[in-house]
Amino acid sequence: MQKYIPKMYKKNIFDVNYEKLKKNGIKCILFDLDNTLLTVNSNKIDKKIGNFINKLKKDFSIYVISNNSNKKRLEIVTNTLDIPYIYFALKPLSFGFKKIIKKYGYKPNEMCIIGDQIITDVLGGNRIGIFTILIEPLESKELKITSINRFLERKIIQKMENLGKFKKGVFYE
Ligand SMILES: [Mg+2]
User: Is 29 helix (H, G, I), strand (E, B) or coil?
Assistant: First the structure.
């Protein structure tokens, strides 16, 4: 069960304690795309989110790691932010994470992932030993594959809640 528990849990990307990340030696932030930076039906990053990401670039190297297989979409989105991306990352598998580690030379303890799904973002990050941050999805509309994940996620959350290890909506850092 431990591998499903995020190290930090916040409502959105703005609420994440980036000072704490910096203090803990985090140099590289991997952002999930769908429902973390962008709603599912949009190709355009919200201005507020875009500006915020640009500010974060002063302190961190930023990457997008998405399970979305639509390369064109990833390109359009990340081009506006001018950040590198991994698409079709197959989270929670380690493939995409390893690609970034290999290419940019970070150690796992210098990295974190911010995403809206326990089954992909948190589990994948915990497996590879990077700091994991769960946020609430931007909206309830999801990709088809995600609704299957959510079904499993609800079961996992229920289990974690029963064990007193996690509670939906109770944020912490
Ligand atoms: Mg997502």
Answer: strand
Q: Is 39 strand, coil or helix?
A: coil
Residues whose CB is under 5 A from ligand 1 (ion)?
32, 34-35, 116
Per domain, the residue ranges of the chain are 2-162
CB count in 10 Å sphere of residue 2? 7
> How many residues would you count in the chain?
173
Q: What is the pLDDT of residues 60-114, one digit of tens each?
A: 999 999 999 999 989 988 888 999 999 999 999 999 999 999 999 999 999 999 9
Q: How far is the CA of 137 from the centre of ligand 1 (A)?
A: 7
What is the distance between the alpha carbons of residues 112 and 133, in angstroms, rounded to a whole number?
7
- Tokens linked to 14: 């703005």
The C-alpha atoms of residue 73 and residue 102 are separated, in whole angstroms, by: 24
Contact call for residues 143 and 151 (beta carbons, < 8 A): no
**CA 20 to ligand 1 center in whole angstroms:** 23
How many Å lie between the centroid of ligand 1 and the Cα of residue 33? Answer: 6
Fold of 2-162: Rossmann fold (3.40.50)
Q: What is the CA radius of gyration of the chain?
A: 15
